[in-house]
Amino acid sequence: MYKLMIAEDEVLERKAINIIIKKYFDNIDIIEEAQNGIEAVEIARRIKPDIIIMDIRMPEKNGIEAQKTILKFNHNVKTIILTAYDEFQFAQAAIKLNVIDFLLKPAKPSEIVEAINKAITSIQFNENISSLEINAMNKSLIQEAIDYIHKNYSKNINLESVASFVHLNPQYFSRYFKANVGMTFIEYLSKLRIKKAKELLELTDKSISEISFEVGYIDPGYFSKVFSKFEGVTPNKFKIDHRKSILKA
After folding, report:
1. Exposed end of the chain (fewer CB within 10 Å): N or C?
2. Distance of CA 55 to CAs 10, 72, 80, Å?
3. pTM for the full model?
4. Quick check: 190 and 184 in contact, CB under 8 A?
């Protein structure tokens, strides 16, 4: 639901706008009505409307002044200005104040509906842009985490240390990593370490213990257990089988 505030000092105008909105929109909640500019600011500060229908000529504070004040604490509000014919040029000067449309009083129902639809479209567009920016940020954070893992897999890193590096709560990072990478942090780190271990087993004459330390496992016995889980054979058997395949070739 989109929150809408009507700021209009004429009772009949407010009632007419209410009737039109309730007839044509089921996704708008008219949160409150303001009878003057000061009330409009107070209500907007308290309830943070998504859309405002604002008359220019109001007591206490006119619509343009009220809009300027509201924008200081509610930057994204979409405002539809109601203006009399002789105020129209003055109203156009407010185009930089997040005013989405100007309606000449008395506004037709079709004009009000069109203006509100325009405001909703603008809100949805901004929401989509924000969503794309969040997704981009998420991908950037994941890439940072993966780069960090690849640079430090041989050290004693864990979920907490990587989460700290990307400034995320460990529990959130754990869920976030799995959702974006498709496997848990431990699975990813283990697969990377085993991949590096296989390269060392194939290309060097280093002992199992040496390789275990080089890929981040302090306990060679635990390294062998993890290796066997992923490869189906022990590191030593993998090394022997690899040498046999070379000799046969």
Report:
1. C
2. 9, 19, 8
3. 0.58
4. no
